[in-house]
Specification:
Largest sheet: 7 strands, mixed
Strand content: 15-25%
Shape: globular
Number of helices: 15
Structural class: alpha/beta
Distance between the termini: 54 Å
Helix content: 25-40%
């Protein structure tokens, strides 16, 4: 549907007469832009989703909810042996060059009071390294250790694609090599009113929204990057979102558990702090392992306690996953398999009077964790929150840059103190991933020493 007549016929057939009237008052160049912008969107999918959710209104079914099996933090000798076996299996995957990394980075830093892609936000406590630099340095460290290329794939958005690619170019791809850093923009879907009408955003665009983090698996396929990675012999994709500076990229233990379980999807989870914590929950739904958003889980399950008085559904989602690439290909082979969700929002949109007005819109999006129930086998592994999970979502307070920096300092302080060093409580500590990607590597490289430090410490490569 690339020609003007095709677009207008489609809009007429689906009752979008307001858009046709708008088209005819545009100048010729604007009409051309209008047609181009509409054909770049999957408006047919949006209308199908509109019809589906209209018919499903009020539909509900009983769900069987139960705890899911999770590989807990090791605290016994047998469990430590299991970790060793997993690490060996993960090391083999990395030794064989079978792992790539996907960072989902479509967001802007506006909630942090920062203008620009969130990945370009400076976060490390001493050197002010950006989120992108910290991830890239971890990958460089793994490449150096295993001697194999680890491609970095970055999902951007229409809004930040140009800025993100320019940022990597300006920093010489942080030493990864231009050919080893791949980008694709997240797809957009037009929103609709409850009556099924598309809305304008400016003179030549429809009001649209990103198709959700689940769209990363669709975009990976449609961009051709999935096929290219598989042609390189890569079988596993290490997935993380850009806002967590503590992500342990290409963690061999996690890769190994994924491999030994024969999993197509694996997830890292943390223990929920309280029953009120707003985090998705890893559980079993109708016999299938799944993650359910806190807003979609019944209050009785969110607040359920076990016989010891502890949270029954304790496994909180961290948005750290591993996906088998053959599985990603399978869920794209006959149309994208992940379900779409509807979000009802009020948006201030321009009115023909020249003023803005609040309009209810339906937005459609996919969640990447909805791939879990589609997998033949899934795996979940518990991690320590203080070591691997400090998302940067808010300008102040909980899950802010302040709490993330504090977590980074606390983690690196612990590594240094394990060598016998005493550190003043006010001192900041930062360890470059190029010096050590985890405590184990740091202790291997650093001799035991008894001394006292009262100034900020940066340990680089």
């Amino acid at each position: 549907m690339k020609r003007k007549t095709d677009v207008l016929d489609f809009l007429k057939h689906h009752g979008q007469h307001h858009l046709i009237r708008h088209f005819h008052v545009l100048a010729k160049e604007q009409q051309r832009e209008f047609v181009q912008n509409i054909t770049a969107l999957d408006i047919e999918l949006a209308l199908k989703l509109m019809d589906k959710f209209s018919r499903d209104e009020g539909a509900s079914g009983e769900e069987r909810i139960e705890p899911a099996p999770v590989i807990a933090l090791p605290n016994a000798e047998e469990e430590r042996h299991r970790v060793k076996a997993a690490r060996n299996a993960g090391n083999t995957l990395l030794d064989e060059g079978r792992v790539a990394v996907l960072i989902v980075a479509g967001g802007q830093g506006s909630r942090l009071g920062f203008e620009g892609p969130k990945g370009t936000y400076s976060i490390s406590p001493i050197r002010n390294k950006t989120l992108f630099q910290l991830f890239a340095e971890q990958i460089r460290a793994r490449v150096k250790r295993y001697g194999k290329t680890i491609p970095l794939v970055v999902m951007t958005s229409i809004e930040n694609h140009a800025d993100t690619t320019a940022f990597f170019a300006a920093h010489d791809y942080f030493g990864l090599g231009k050919k080893n850093v791949l980008f694709f923009p997240q797809q957009m879907l037009p929103a609709v009113t409850p009556e099924g009408k598309f809305l304008l955003s400016g003179q030549t665009n429809l009001f649209s929204n990103p198709d959700g983090h689940g769209g990363s698996l669709k975009g990976l396929h449609e961009s051709g990057i999935l096929g290219n990675l598989m042609a390189m012999g890569i079988t596993e994709l290490y997935y993380a979102q850009v806002d967590n500076p503590l992500v342990k990229i290409c963690d061999p233990v996690f890769l190994g558990h994924h491999c030994l379980a024969g999993a197509e999807v694996s997830t890292k989870v943390v223990r929920r702090r309280t029953v009120e914590e707003r985090v998705g929950v890893y559980l079993k739904r109708n016999g299938k392992e799944a993650i359910v958003e806190y807003s979609d889980l019944a209050a009785e399950h969110m607040s359920a306690l076990d016989e010891k008085g502890e949270i029954l559904y304790w496994a909180g989602n961290t948005a750290i996953h591993i996906f088998s690439l053959p599985f990603v290909r399978r869920i794209n082979e006959h149309g994208f398999s992940l379900p779409y969700h509807r979000a009802r929002k009020k948006n201030a949109l321009p009115h023909h009077s020249g003023r803005t007005q609040d309009v209810e819109v339906w937005k459609f999006e996919t969640f990447v964790f909805d791939a879990i129930p589609l997998a033949k086998h899934a795996c979940a592994m518990e991690i320590a929150r203080e070591e691997e999970f400090a998302p940067v979502k808010n300008k102040t307070g909980e899950d802010s840059s302040q709490t993330a920096r504090k977590a980074m300092i606390s983690l690196h302080r612990k590594w240094v103190e394990r060598t016998g060093v005493r550190i003043d409580p006010e001192v900041a500590v930062e360890i470059s991933p190029l010096a050590a990607v985890d405590e184990e590597e740091f202790l291997e490289k650093t001799p035991v020493q008894e001394r006292y430090i009262d100034t900020d410490i940066y340990i680089g490569d």
